[in-house]
Design brief:
The protein is an alpha/beta fold. The protein is built from 21 helices and 26 strands. Strand 17 and strand 18 form a beta hairpin. It binds 5'-O-[(L-methionyl)-sulphamoyl]adenosine (MSP).
């Protein structure tokens, strides 16, 4: 037997998240379909996915929960694995960047690059938030302040190591010229060239002193490996590169395909190839940068309320409805929109009306007219010849499209065949043939043609919607065919199931619309109302505009600022818990609104004679606050 050809396909490794949404499933479902497809084509496939577990954010989230980073991550990874299982993701390995083998491999890679002189010591500069012990880039800041705690940040420097990307730029450019197929779709090359290569590559920071949750750098224990060298190395550490057993590496490297979202394409087509060049390793054959799944044209996120755990969809509609939508809906390389209604529409129109209907009525007719048995069609009419030749050309056409990684159109080619078989039923009208005894042989041939066509389509669909293909084989009472058995007419006799099972029950779209509208309504944040009051009660509150003359920190209470406010000839001391949101000096001169007839009270030894009004809301789990201000003259009444 000839050796199977190896095929190595990877997804990115995911950041541990409590909020995996349907967009996250997109890369992994495509990778799974490609891996399954190649397996069915007879390749020896290795499909890798995993998790990217180091970094400051994880460290902080674990600290907040009072657990170690590893304790924090473990249940999240179990949850991710459960999600992949629910989507029928059949990976060969799930790598975690906290795995000992990965850690050892990354340390050896860093050491190798350092020994070679491709890594040098420099300094990292960024905006630093002292209480959070975190560096931020300019673009991460929110209103110039720490995005986590809202406090002031300052420009700071720390020792760090850098990888000489610039040294390898000419070599990379030359390589890309010879291998334009690395970047898929090839149109992404221009974007990479204009935005990154043309302006000249900047060396990459590969280690940090302030990030503690990371892989220690062996040649400088004060540092940990920083983000991309750690993450990208997973593609070779998973295969045992630089370990005692590198047989998988020898067999599967270079990767046939790295599948990634467009936002991380540049790391995979610039930094990763340079790392590999520096390590004297061959470069991957293709990197495919897919578009994003959006909701209403925008990002999917829990805070926007447009998020549902994908397992809810799997539960409600079955795994293949979700897989089929993800695989067929997003045009090759571009963004695509997701909505539950759209997914159900596609299920009803394609899976239920076209595929399910064909299988169901053909099995029913086979039972009704022949007690479930059929003999091979050997008397082709011209119509049969046309249909059979169309079926026989499917495998090659799908294969060519899959070679281009164009999954939606590959599925389209299969569905055109299924539609053709439905049309063939209308053309041959089995129910009319059944009316006379002499037409029964022809009726056998017609039904055989359809059933065998269904078998061929089920084989082609197996990579995309595997459990549906399995259910079809079960109803046809056959084993899952191999590629060699695919040709029309491979089965001599069929004995189909007596009780056809509905593959995809129709979902009532009107009912769904009503349910979704009700869910949306229920999800609207509700304002918690206080009991009604009389006008006189409201009118009894004295609110006045005043100007802040002085503002200081409370000597004994971190959260409180002490204001001196002028209300037009009357100055009052007012205390307010806004220290986390303002620097005292920035409030001097501001005109604020205060309640003046509130009973004075003491807070940690200082008296507050009134209360400043502010607007407060929790946004993305963080409290936001703004003092109410006014441009009206001091002493104006607020009513
Ligand atoms: N950890 C890095 C990858 C390191 S690879 C060496 C990372 N992780 S991620 O969790 O943020 O993203 C993982 C994958 O999910 C990416 O390919 C990303 O594009 C994909 N998606 C996340 N949201 C998505 C959509 N809304 N739509 C499609 N894919 C998106 O990046």
């Amino acid at each position: 037997m000839s050796e199977k050809k190896p095929y190595y396909v990877t997804t990115p490794i995911y950041y541990p998240s409590d909020n995996f949404h349907i967009g996250h499933c997109y890369t992994t479902v495509i990778a799974d379909a490609l891996a399954r497809y190649k397996k069915l084509q007879g390749y020896d496939v290795y499909f890798l996915t995993g998790s990217d577990e180091h970094g400051q954010k994880i460290e902080e989230r674990a600290k907040k929960k009072g657990v170690t980073p590893k304790e924090f991550i473990d249940p999240i990874i179990d949850n991710a694995k459960d999600l992949w299982k629910s989507l029928d993701i059949n990976y060969d390995k799930f790598i975690r960047t906290t795995d000992d083998e990965h850690v050892a491999c990354v340390q050896k890679i860093m050491q190798k690059l350092y020994d070679k002189g491709d890594i040098y010591k420099g300094s990292y500069e960024g905006w630093y938030c002292t209480p959070c012990e975190s560096f931020w880039t300019e673009s991460q800041l929110v209103d110039g302040k720490c995005p986590d705690c809202g406090r002031e940040v300052k420009m700071m420097k720390e020792d760090a190591y850098f990888l000489k990307l610039s040294k390898y730029q000419p070599q990379l450019e030359a390589w890309l010229k010879e291998h334009p197929e690395l970047m898929q779709p090839e149109s992404r090359y221009n974007e990479m060239y204009n935005n990154f290569l043309k302006p000249g590559l900047k060396d990459l920071c590969v280690s940090r002193a302030s990030v503690k949750w990371g892989i220690p750098v062996t040649f400088d224990p004060s540092q940990t490996v920083y983000v991309w060298v750690d993450a990208l190395s997973n593609y070779i550490s998973a295969l045992g590169y630089l370990s005692d057993d590198d047989s998988l590496f020898k067999k599967f490297w270079p990767a046939d395909l790295h599948l990634v979202g467009k936002e991380i394409f540049r790391f995979h087509t610039i930094i990763w190839p340079i790392m590999l060049m520096a390590l004297d390793l061959p470069l991957p054959k293709k990197v495919y940068g897919h578009g994003w799944l959006t909701i209403g044209g925008g990002k999917i996120s829990k805070s926007k309320g447009n998020y549902k755990d994908p397992r809810i969809f799997v539960n409600d509609y079955g795994v293949d409805t979700v897989r089929y939508f993800l695989l067929s809906e997003v045009p090759f390389g571009s963004d695509g929109n997701f909505s539950e209604e759209l997914m159900v529409e596609r299920r009803n129109s394609d899976l239920c009306n076209v595929l399910g209907n064909l299988v169901n009525r053909t099995i029913s007719m086979t039972n009704k007219y022949f007690g479930g048995t059929l003999k091979k069609n050997v008397n082709y009419t011209d119509l049969d010849k046309e249909v059979v030749s169309y079926l026989n050309s499917m495998a090659k056409e799908v294969d060519d499209k899959m070679e281009e990684l164009d999954i939606p159109n590959s599925l389209g080619l299969i569905f055109r065949r299924i539609e053709r078989l439905n049309k063939y039923i209308d053309e041959t009208m089995p129910w009319s043939l059944a009316k006379s005894e002499e037409n029964l042989p022809r009726l056998n041939d017609v039904l055989y043609t359809i059933i065998d066509g269904i078998r061929m389509c089920a084989f082609e669909l197996e990579a995309f919607i595997p459990s549906t293909s399995k259910r079809i084989y079960e109803q046809l009472n056959i084993e899952s065919p191999t590629l060699e058995q695919l040709e029309f007419g491979n089965i001599e006799n069929y004995k189909v199931t007596e009780k056809p099972e509905i593959l995809f029950a129709r979902i009532d779209e009107e009912e769904l619309k009503a349910r979704l509208a009700a869910e949306e309504e229920a999800a609207q944040p509700k304002i918690e109302h206080k009991p009604e009051i009389e006008f006189a009660q409201f009118d009894g509150v004295e609110m006045v505009v005043g100007e802040v003359k002085e503002c200081k920190k409370h000597p004994d209470a971190d959260k409180i600022l002490v204001f001196k406010v002028d209300f037009g000839g009357e100055e009052r001391q007012i205390l307010s818990g806004v220290a986390a949101f303002y620097k005292p000096e920035e409030l001097v001169g501001k005109k604020v609104v205060a309640v003046l007839n509130l009973k004075p009270r003491k807070i940690r030894g200082l008296e507050s004679c009134g209360m400043l009004l502010s607007a407060v809301k929790e946004i993305d789990g963080k409290e936001k606050l703004e003092l109410m201000t006014s441009n009206m003259p001091v002493g104006s009444k607020v009513c």
